[in-house]
From TrEMBL:
Coiled coil: none annotated. It comes from the Bacteria. Keywords: DNA-binding, Transcription, Transcription regulation. Residues 51-70 bind DNA. Residues 1-21 are annotated as: Disordered. Pfam families: TetR_N. Residues 28-88 form the HTH tetR-type domain. This is TetR/AcrR family transcriptional regulator.
Length: 225
């Protein structure tokens, strides 16, 4: 699931760096190259095993060039998570207003599983939270943003009558969070095969949830009301 993450963006940015660009554009490309490299290493090796020298080497940037952009590894962690949050916010903005709310949340959950396989920034943010979040809440910035969106969608679904009256919104949100985190952890640890399609696996959860919806909510969706 994690092999090769971050290398394609790094390579494409290096190719761009080889072209004639302005000094400001070159500085921005270097910064992005460093973030790509840091995300790939944090996701693959974890925070403790990744050094500033490792990041500079992975990006093909001098150590001085690295410190010109980032003063510490923690600062890079913050930037990686900010980039991941931007990915989340972009998806939420594109799907805002869509109904029903549960289906929108199901879509977000499946997209998240895709990001874990394809976007090192999101994968790194999950690993940072898993390994370092109990030591410092700053490492859980992305996960907190994602959990907040889960709770908001569940609350909206509850308000729209999409949840069975027997389902507590806080417990429904917890179920979604625990399932997604559990799948990520199981894939990262090798508990499940590395080629497991996490998005398809998660779809099974949503089949169970949708089966528990009130009959009038299901009927309303079928008629488009």
């Amino acid at each position: 699931m994690m092999s090769g993450l971050g290398h394609t963006p790094c390579r494409s940015r290096r190719e761009t760096m080889g072209k004639t660009v302005t000094k400001q554009a070159r500085a921005e490309l270097t910064r992005l190259l460093l973030l790509d490299a840091a995300a790939a290493l944090f996701y693959r090796d974890g925070y403790a095993a990744t050094s500033m020298v490792d990041i500079a080497r992975e990006a093909g940037v001098t150590k001085g060039g690295l410190y010109f952009h980032f003063s510490s590894k923690d600062e890079i962690c913050d930037e990686v998570q900010s980039a991941a949050v931007a990915v989340l916010r972009g998806h939420v903005a594109r799907t805002r207003g869509s109904r029903p709310h549960l289906r929108r949340l199901a879509g977000l959950s499946r997209v998240l599983m895709g990001w874990l396989a394809e976007d090192a920034k999101v994968g790194a943010s999950f690993r940072l939270a898993r390994e370092m979040g109990s030591n410092d809440p700053r490492f859980a910035a992305f996960v907190r943003a994602w959990m907040g969106q889960v709770r908001a969608d569940i609350a909206a679904a509850h308000g729209a009558g999409e949840l069975s009256p027997h389902v507590r919104p806080d417990m429904a949100a917890l179920l979604v969070v625990v399932t997604c985190v559990g799948l990520e952890s199981a894939a990262a640890s090798g508990t499940i095969p590395a080629d497991t399609d996490l998005a398809s696996t998660l779809s099974e959860l949503w089949r169970v949830i949708e089966a528990a919806r009130p009959a009038d909510s299901a009927a309303a969706e079928a008629t488009g009301t």
